[in-house]
Amino acid sequence: MSDLRQSLALRLAVQYALVFALGAAVLFSVLYWLLANALDARERAALESRAEDIAAAYERGGPAGMSARLDSDSSPDIRSYFVRLLGPGDTAVFVKVPPDWIETQVQFLPVPRAFGIMATREVRTVRIPQNADRDYAIASRELPGGWLLQVGRLMDSRAVLLAPLRRAFAGVGAGALFLSVAVGTILAWRATRPLREVSRTARRIIETGDLAARVPSPGGTGELAVLVHQLNALFDKNAAHVRVLRETLDNLAHDLRTPLTRLRGTAELALQDGGDPAEARGALAGCVNESDRVLHLLETLLDISAAEAGALKLNRDPLDLRALVERAADLYREVAEEKNITLAVEQPAAAELHADAIRLGQAINNLVDNALKYTPAGGRVTLATAVEPGAVVFTVSDTGPGVPAAERNAIFRRLYRGDASRSQRGLGLGLSLVKAIVEAHGGTVAVGDAPGGGARFVTRLPRG
After folding, report:
1. pLDDT interval class at 193 (50, 70, 90)
2. Residue 319 CB: number of other CB atoms within 10 A?
3. What is the pLDDT of residues 369-408, one digit of tens each?
4. 220 Cβ contact list (under 8 Å, min separation 6)
5. Which of 240, 376, 249 is nearest to 303 (CA)?
6. 138 vs 9, 82, 168, 347, CA distance in Å?
7. Rounded to whole angstroms, how far apart are CA atoms 317 and 352?
8. How many CB atoms lie within 10 A of CB 355?
9. Beta partners for 83?
């Protein structure tokens, strides 16, 4: 039951059933309205015809002729018509009332107490029947001499035809809705079985770490079958990458364990040396810290190596580069305020391209972080986008010390840091990661002088 409540199949079946019910209700409402209007139009036409006939009888023989015409009418529905003839001054000269329009009431009349009884009498009144499914219509004809003929009738179409139709639709619709949900759930449950197998396999890999687990192939050539085959291929590729990565890590650990262990051991022994305690402890403490820094550096290098070795798979989608730039500006705006740096964004026009939003955003963030890191307090960092024929250009300009011309190619290499001009600490890997991501998109990144001094990083990305 828990799986059923969370099932995509059940949700799809219920949603499609609701859409079906809504469509059926709209269709029935339109047909019901058309049918009701057609029936009302037919009955009103019959009423108008009856009024014309009675008016013609009045014109031939006056009130007596009209009464004779009504008495001689043998049609079965003549008793359902209300007929009233009003003379000058709206005085009723002739009135014919259908039986179901007449209401009888009993009134009690008081008499002297000596008789000890109460007398009663019947009072007959005319009242139109009050029924939500029945309406009435009146056709009026002006006659010579200021006389007025009124002919009325109850509209029985809704009570006789439409009310049973509504009840039938409600009963059949409820049964059809239940049947559609039940049958739709069964069919959708069978159709989505490969998705449940994918979920179970992924859960098994997560919980047990069994990278050999694969999704059972459903057979056929449908979309879900293709999805299962692709996922299994993805699992195979990931397992191969993990295996290579583990082997690389094992080899790297084996190659570096001995020298790093010796370095740390020497530093620890030097801390216990009987020489100048202050100098020995300061130097060797720095050695220990550097060894930890080297270990962290190696971990970062492994991440970049995996990206440059082809593991960086790009999921290209249409996007506007301005959204990524605005996101990066919002992310670093607080950092800029803390350092008293003005962070400006200049994006006059749309800059659309096909790219991996996550990877490209990572590169933009690194460029903004690099600019803020080397811009002094009171400076300015400007982010700008522009469009060139076949390319989108993103620039980051700062008012820092700039990058010497001799170092502009070297700063994108791993571990390179131009400390002669920039004294901030870091691993020297941010710009190399930017270069790897941009070149994976088929673009280029370069650095030059910003207007008014400082560095200006220019990234060009193809729009296709």
Report:
1. confident
2. 17
3. 999 998 999 999 999 999 999 899 999 999 988 888 888 8
4. none
5. 249
6. 57, 9, 31, 71
7. 10
8. 28
9. 96, 151
